[in-house]
Amino acid sequence: MAEFAVIIFRALALLLALVLSAALLTWAERRLLGLWQDRYGPNRVGPFGLLQVVADMLKLLGKQEFVPPFADKPVFILAPAIAMSTMLLAFAVIPFAPGFPLADLNLGLLFFLAMSSLAVYAILLGGYASNNKYALLGSLRSAAQVLSYEVFMGLALLGVVLQAGSFSLGQIVEAQRELWFCIPQFLAMVLFFIAGIAESHRLPFDLPEAEHELTAGFHTEYSGMKFGMFFVGEYLGVILISSLMTTLFFGGWLGPVLPPWLWFLLKTLFFVLLFVLLRAALPRPRYDQLMAFGWKCLLPLALLNLTVTALVLL
Amino acid sequence: MDTVRSSPEHVESPHSSLEVLRSAAPGLVGQRTADGIETCWVPRDQLRALLGAAQRQAFEMLFDLTAIDERVREHRQEQPAADFSVVYQLLSVSRNRDLRVKVALLEEDLTLPSICDLWPNANWYECEVWDLFGIRFDGHPHLRRILLPPTWEGHPLRKDHYARATEVDPFSLDAARQDREQEALKFCPEDWGMQRQSDDSDFMFLNLGPNHPSVHGVFRVALQLDGEEIVQAVPDIGYHHRGAEKMGERQAWHSYIPYTDRIDYLGGVMNNLPYVLAVEKLAGIEVPARAQCIRVMMSELFRIASHLVFYGTFAQDVGQMSPVFYMFADRERLFGIVEAITGGRMHPAWFRIGGVAQDLPRGWERMIREFIDYLPARLDEYDSMVLDNRTLKRRTRGIGVYSSAEGLAWGASGPGLRATGLDWDLRRKRPYSGYEQYDFEVVTASGGDCYDRAWVRAEEIRQSLRIVRQCLDHMPAGDYKARHPLTTPPPKDRTLEDIETLIQHFVNSSWGPVIPPGEAAVAVEATKGMNAYYLISDGGTLSYRTRIRTPSFPHLQMIPLMSRGLFVSDLIAIIASIDFVMADVDR
């Protein structure tokens, strides 16, 4: 019973920490973009504008819970919940410190892949239920994009799995005691990062919501907290991909002197900032160019990586 | 017309080409105008023959097409009797000549043959004349209201149409009228020349705008899509129409200047220039060298400001988030200078008939020198950030292409036309305001695609900086306003010395100047292309007709040509690369 209570407590603590850090990330991103773009960003509410997060949340909560009359109501409401919950669930397998993944599944990596595939449904359903042409175009683009990038994301990860000999994220970290996988699995790392950006649809892979073409893409019709959930889901995705980068290629919690959880945090933070910097720097390719890049360039590379890894190990 | 060559850098000797055209249209009658453009009247039945002959004589472009309500005009010496006249202004780029053709129409029979088959851009112009004057064009593929809503009653540029809402009963929207207006807004693909389905697919219709983040104002494109591929893109304009030409008929010559600022609202005082040049031509004012140089300097500063906005928003529209902030920050510096000199920022309304409003303030050299020393390094940085970016190149190279010949046939001008390889720049070809004294290059590219249009503008910023530097180094001394009785407001220093100047000052400041009757059109190389004001004075304190020929109007008309068969994302890049503002289209 006590054990059960501990798990519940841990789950709640993790949930709180994640949602809070996703919210904080919105502030951090805006401040960083401001810094890189010669402007201020939100700096008025609270110290350094930190309470902007609270203000934004209150604003979103205060909005009318509006469902367009032409929308498919149940699906419309379900979609943002899926977006947020799949991302949160995927965190269950992330080992933040030795012995602290919420669930130490021996198929942890597969669980993550399954969850990220489920997240596509959020976008598809959201776009479909909105009954809006921009949303439909956005969700179609998104489905195609995520499905194709998932293929070689999985293939890229297989190299890591082969080398670690396990699907369990904890064991993958342990397998990096001698050498972080970012060196032997360099190609896989690059591929995974690119696919990760596409999965979380951030610039330059933000075609599903491409503001300048599709107004807001699949979430054009969303407002209030339902929009907020998509929004938080996106930032959770950024954190998720960053923590997976840390876990799979940069030795997870491993590191000298500092406590393991801090190492994990610092490494993850680094990749989160990289995401933001990418957004500040890059333009957006065209949809067909993105797909061609995925299938013609990244997929063969992922296969190559897998073959070479297998040969070396044999 | 496959290869278009631009003319040598001087205007051909003005021996008349009218004699040659007379064989095509024996009923041709000449008219003298203040601007010296060859002008002739032609009977309606010989119009198409004449225009066809002119086209064969290398008048490649239909520069402008408009009309005049002649019914209350008093000074019409040597002109045929007419209630309305329709004016066609043609431009030959290869011969560097203009030709203005007028047709007289009587009120009971306001029809003309359409010339859409001769010049494709006549389409929108003819719609505009129908919309604003109620003159019909036989054989036009789809004559409709283009600037005003389809439910509008009357034709506003007619002299008997009211100009102010206070001249009619207050507007009210009752239920029946609301229904009528709503009904008129309904989208029916057939009205736009679109099919609902083809043999193998049903098309999707996407309404891009008038509120959309990438259409730069209130502009709408109706899209017929097959998947994400564009089958047809039909632009819909008029949401920004403010009746600028009608206002010109109610404002004194002087007090109309602030309205011109708001036509191309990124161009600032550059808009004043063609207007005051045209008025000065009518009035016969010689502008002193210092005023000319100040005008050139301010215009070029605004060209830089406008191109910076273009550069930033272009990058933004292809999905690059940051550059626009840097470019707006630079533009803000520029506005600091503009504010110090003129007191205004975006709309200084600072040029005057006969000169400029004030002399340059103390310390202007330092401000401008600092800016032109600062900007080049930034521009290099922007080039490496935007134009050298490979993703951006892949998005914009080979997209939205038109050739020089197509550009001329559709009335394109400015950086868009120069991106096709044609070095047509009025500053060089027909120098005004002393441009012949400056050393600068006319920037051209060869591809005529979105990328080249952006590249040409980026280079033009550097050329403008060169011109500004020359203004700075060689600013002539002297008056900033002409000592001419019609200069408005008149120079003040002699008003209390002699009675003539005092009277002139009093009259010009109370009624406004009385401009001698006549017609003059002046075009300048504005930020977005050729901007021309065609002014008709009937010898009063108000303009009889103010026609504003803007570059963006024909540019938007080219969107269907440029976007067929491409994707929605390409259309966004195309729209971004045109560089238009809606006020410059709808006026």
Describe the structure.
The complex is a heterodimer of chains A (314) and B (587). The N and C termini of chain A lie far apart (46 Å). Chain A has one domain (2-313). Chain A has 314 residues and is an all-alpha fold. Chain A has 11 helices and no strands. The radius of gyration of chain A is 20 Å and the shape is globular. The longest helix of chain A has 35 residues, at 2-36. The model of chain A has no long low-confidence stretch (mean pLDDT 82). Chain B is an alpha+beta fold and 587 residues long. Chain B has 2 domains: 16-138, Beta Polymerase, domain 2; 244-586, Cytochrome-c3 Hydrogenase, chain B (Orthogonal Bundle). Chain B is 37% helix and 15% strand. In chain B, the strands form 5 sheets. A 5-stranded mixed beta sheet of chain B has the order 1-2-5-4-3. In chain B, strands 8-9-10 form a 3-stranded antiparallel beta sheet. The radius of gyration of chain B is 24 Å and the shape is globular. The two termini of chain B are 32 Å apart. Chain A: It is a multi-pass membrane protein. Chain A: It catalyses: a quinone + NADH + 5 H(+)(in) = a quinol + NAD(+) + 4 H(+)(out). Chain A: This is NADH-quinone oxidoreductase subunit H. Chain A: One of its GO terms (biological process) is aerobic respiration. Chain A: Belongs to the complex I subunit 1 family.
Which strand order does the major sheet of chain B show? 1-2-5-4-3
Radius of gyration of chain B: 24 Å
Gross CATH architecture of the largest domain in chain B: Orthogonal Bundle
**Which radius of gyration of chain A do the C-alpha atoms yield?**
20 Å
Q: What is the total tally of β strands of chain B?
A: 15
Specify the overall morphology of chain B. Answer: globular
Tell me what portion of residues of chain B adopts beta-strand conformation: 5-15%
Helix amount of chain A:
55-70%
Q: Number of DSSP helices of chain B?
A: 20
CATH class of the largest domain in chain B: Mainly Alpha
Q: How would you sum up the global shape of chain A?
A: globular
Extended strand count of chain A: 0
List the quaternary state of the chains: heterodimer
Low-confidence stretches of chain A: none
- CATH fold field value of the largest domain in chain B: Cytochrome-c3 Hydrogenase, chain B
The H/E string of chain A reads HHHHHHHHHHH
Average the pLDDT over all residues of chain B and give the rounded result.
Answer: 87
